[in-house]
Amino acid sequence: MKVAYYPGCASHGIAKDVDIATQLIAKDLDLELMEVDDWNCCGGGFMDDKNEAVHASLNLRNLEKVEKMGYDKMATPCSVCLNSHKVAADKYENDPVLKEDVDQRLKDANMEEYDNGVESEHFIWVLIRDVGIENIRKHVKRPLSGLKVGTYYGCQLLRPSNVMGFESAFNPHSVMDLVAATGATPVAFPMKTACCGFPLMGSNPTVALKMANNILSSARNEGSEMLVHPCSLCHLQLDVTQDKIQRQFKQNWRLPALYITQLIGLSFGYTPKQLGMSRGSIEYLRSRGIS
Amino acid sequence: MEEKEITVNIKKYNDKDGAFWKSYKLKADKYTQMTEVLRRIKSEQDPSLAYRASCHMAVCGSCSMKINGIPSLACRTIALQAVDEKNEINVESMDYYPGVRDLITDIDVFYDKMYKVMPRLIADESVLMGENEQRMTPENQTEVWKFQECIYCGLCVSACPSVKEDEQFLGPAAHAKGFRFVDDVRDTKRSERLDLLMDSAYRCTSCYMCYEVCPQDVQPVIAIKKTKNYLDQYKGNTPITIMARKHDDTVENLIETTGKIKESTLFLKTFGFGEAMRDAIDMLKSGKFKYAFEKDSNVKNMNEIKGMMGEKK
Ligand code: SF4
Ligand code: SF4
Ligand code: FES
Fold first, then answer.
1. Checking DSSP bridges between strand B88-92 and strand B64-67, what pairing results, if any?
2. Nearest to B81 by CA among B49, B115, B119, B33
3. Residues 94-153 of A with CB under 8 A from B
4. Could you identify the atom of ligand 2 that is nearest to the CA of residue B152?
5. Would an 8 Å CB–CB cutoff place B212 in contact with chain A?
6. By the 8 A CB rule, do A17 and A77 touch?
7. Which of A3, A109, A125, B52 has the CA that lies 20 to 30 A from A81?
């Protein structure tokens, strides 16, 4: 099956491992990821802070490219990119004042009016809906039994649920289902749908790190040995930034934080190194006999 | 009407005994609201049960609580729709506010935050003297309407992760109320309002929790984002707004010149060389430093990007 694929800036930059893992498991699952032609940054949760119409236009440009490629669905491995495209498309459809401004901008860019015909989806939605959990299970060569994995969703994948639409904002289970498919034991924890704090890193990093620490501690308190998340920006916040958190909160523990497709990749038999993981995760997995 | 027996587990609380769960059984039909469930429990089974409710139609904002962990208005929740597969419902008081008794919390901190943002229209003197008329366009009315619909229920603040960690954050409801006047053409105090709101706006983490729980669809996070749209008009500077300005300008500039964001440049420009170096050391330690040099191609058709970003608003 062919799917239009929007990697997003972070997963082509310092969250490259997110892209690596997504590509690896897609291949095994016969998903052909067709990168969106000449895609641009979606502006994440920031560009609308500057100008909503510019933000919406940037996102619609990507969706229009997907339409031109002949697809009606665009998958992304990043919750923030997903949220950005979905919120932009929703505003375009429901806010006539904004639509007028956006249409003018598209015209100024010599582009056509957009007819809102492309659905943005998270890569894990494609895994669940199109590939199917059973099918994923069939590809598991190394069941991760015995590994207790905290299942984190964060904010952008779930909210606002009237726009995101895939699952309940308070009782989601997509990440849990995927973890279970790898043979690992999913661990639900109280802060599984809270924000990791990444968006505050650019303005109020002290509080941002507190939020990240709340997530990690909550997962750890429920017995998680590691944590999986669905977002290339959560990945930055909960993985590499953990060193900062350790310093700030004088903490002597670390909870390896993986992108969900990295965990699936492990169960498909790839090594932590092939999946581009950080040293901390590699070492922890080795101590659990996974290398 | 078909009735079903349900079990309602309520987290009770008082100063003497602390918090404890108590279960009640009763019958409900498909129209029974949770406020009605609570009323029946109080009048038929447990007179000590304390909760607030008044209008029973999502107007007064007094029946806020957590139902099955979800911040909700009890009067807007239908019991049979809320039960789990065992026909049970869990009811607790809202998070964040101090408990008074059972489901009643003290939401003074919510009112304080509302009060801080000058929650009233301050019209031009000439209008007050009757020399001029107040006028607004339908577009302007549409823009502020949504943010006016707050019923002071306090749910968004109870669910907001930033309010919990940051006392200086005014919180979602106060921001919606504050912005509603910032953007009202009839108001005369825009710059004072921006002074009150701007630093606080950058304490919101854009997690959309307030949007999710608000029973009135006020969408406070959108009000906060729209407040940030006014950053260029804000004349003040606080450590938070200085950093936010650097960060957001860099984002805009990177998109304008390459169509994409390079996170390492963003870190460098936002946090400055020292902090960015500390980040680089962390990346080096984690074995991910190589990714900082990943170079993605710029957008080819930059004319399209430039056209869309056009004149800045
Ligand atoms: S979006 Fe902002 S105001 Fe709303 S709940 Fe999240 S942090 Fe609080
Ligand atoms: S903004 Fe919505 S959730 Fe918040 S207090 Fe007002 S009505 Fe309640
Ligand atoms: S009783 Fe008034 S809002 Fe629920």
1. antiparallel
2. B33
3. 97, 105-106, 108-111
4. 5
5. yes
6. no
7. A109
Query: Of B209, B219, B305, which has the smallest distance from its Cβ to A40's Cβ?
Result: B305
Helix (H) or strand (E) holding A103: helix A96-108
Question: Counting every residue, how long is chain B?
Answer: 313
Q: Which two tokens stand for residue A24?
A: 């690896």
Query: What pLDDT is recorded for position A14?
Result: 82
Q: Could you say which residues from 172 to 201 on chain A have a Cβ atom under 8 Å away from some Cβ of chain B? A: 194-195, 197-200
Query: Of A29-33, A175-179, B136-140, which range is least confident?
Result: B136-140
Residue B311 confidence (pLDDT): 56
Q: Please report the ipTM that was assigned to this predicted complex.
A: 0.95
Task: Name the pTM for this structure.
Answer: 0.95
* Three-state secondary structure readout of A132-157: CHHHHHHCCCCCCCCCEEEECCCCCC
Q: Which residues of A touch B308 (CB under 8 A)?
A: 54, 57-58, 61, 105-106, 108-109, 111
Q: Whose CA is nearest to atom 6 of ligand 1?
A: B207
User: What integer best gives the mean pLDDT of chain A?
Assistant: 95
Is there a contact between A4 and A75 (Cβ–Cβ < 8 Å)?
A: yes
For residue B290, what pLDDT is reported? 74
Name the burial class of residue A66, with classes exposed (0-12), middle (13-18) and buried (19+) by CB atoms within 10 angstroms of its CB.
Answer: buried
Contact yes or no for A68/A105 (Cβ under 8 A): no
Token duo for residue A93:
């459809």
Residue of A nearest to B203 (CA): A204
All residue ranges of chain B with pLDDT < 50 are 312-313
- Band (pLDDT 50/70/90 cuts) for residue A46 is confident
Peptide bond preceding A160 in cis form (omega within 30 of 0):
yes
8 A C-beta contact, residue A22 and residue A123: yes
